[in-house]
Amino acid sequence: METYDHPTFQMACRQFDQVADHLQIPESERPRLKFPKRAMIVSLPISLEDGTTKVYSGFRVQHHLTLGPTKGGLRFHPEVTLGEVAALAMWMSWKCAITGLPYGGAKGGIACDPHRMSSHEVERLTRRYTQEMIPFIGPQVDIMAPDMGTDEQVMAWVMDTYSMHVGYTVPSIVTGKPVSLGGSLGRREATGRGVAHLVARAADTMGLDLKGATVAIQGFGNVGSIAAQSLENYGAKIIAVSDVSGGVVNQRGLDLQKLAQHVAEKRMVKGFTEGDAISNDEVLLTPCDVLVPAALERQITEKNAGRIQCRILAEAANGPTTPEADAILAQRKDLFIIPDILCNSGGVIVSYFEWVQDLQSFFWSENEVMQKLYQILDQAYDRILKSSRDRKISMRTAALASGIQRVREAKTIRGLFP
Fold it and tell me: pLDDT digit string (tens) for 243-266?
């Protein structure tokens, strides 16, 4: 569909078509599985601190509602587009399906730079966006969560705006909110901890000892920083880290506590003095045992895939590897890829736990949350690894095939409404 014309959506469609060919899905069935059920574009005028008015563009895409309400993050980033959001919603559908969650995929975004806005401006923008989305969201329709550029506070504003509209408090309208408002213990750390847990499983599969293993991470936001700390807890050594500003490398290992303090003060990795400065792109080429792309989409391409030097590629970001790069990496028999829809699924799994806790008004300990998270991740990993080996296909193909097939079966059983 030209409506969603964007390189990331084209990439998601290529992945789908390749797997659909593998599953021998008839051409007549593919559009219903591939294209979103619903997409919204809204104009968001707000008053700025200087007294002027600025209009922002907001988006929300709901991929399918066959298995239950849609679920997906809300990101604030200058380059957000409808096509990018549609791709992320599609990937979320397959992610929810492979982990057995009763959701379809969704994603939302506002084209803005929250780092250049005051807190009051971000609040006004969030509340205006939520107000525009009220006809299309709800605890049984579409549930938002934090994503790039958003956090617990943004989710609290979404929850409050929706609750004021309906006249009573509705904690289950969002996940990833503060614990004091019905958030789940362990939610903020879930994605990063899940990445580390799956890296440990992959290391066992490959016979790699994580104690002393070297790790490079592109992206030091919530996911990348927690994955770094969690991998260090396994005994790994974090030797390179970057964000959009640049990166730092130290073969003896980075002091993550000092790095986190530096990032909190300067809001960037660049300038951290306990290592050599490198670019954001160079981090991907750092020789290491484990490479964790935890930034934006399409970072590993045909131009740099041949120079990747790692044994485990753990895709903490959504869509970090293009299909062209995948073809190159497939020639590497010594490389194990944990595909994104499995690798970063910890966040949506614990979001599901939060939603369930809110609906029941019965809350779990952090230990219970993490035990349940690792159980679901282990089940998904074992199933996808077995499928990959039995059918002699890549881990990515096995994961996508599992997700797509589950959605396809559900649509087939439910039938087509007249």
Answer: 888 899 999 999 999 999 999 888
CA pair distance 243, 222, nearest whole angstrom:
12
Model-wide pTM > 0.70: yes
- What's residue 1's pLDDT? 67
**Residue carrying the six token digits 């990348």:** 224
pLDDT at 3 (0 to 100): 86
Instruction: Decide if 71 is catalytic.
Output: no
Please report, for residues 146, 175, 289, the alpha-carbon distance to residue 153 in angstroms, rounded to integers and kept in the order given: 9, 11, 36
Computed over every residue of the chain, the mean pLDDT equals 95
Q: Which residues contact 261 (CB under 8 A, 6 or more apart)?
A: none
Structure tokens at 22: 């593998």
Catalytic residue among 34, 71, 95, 107: 107
For residue range 366-376, list pLDDT tens digits in order: 999 999 999 99
In the chain, the amino acid numbered 356 is: V
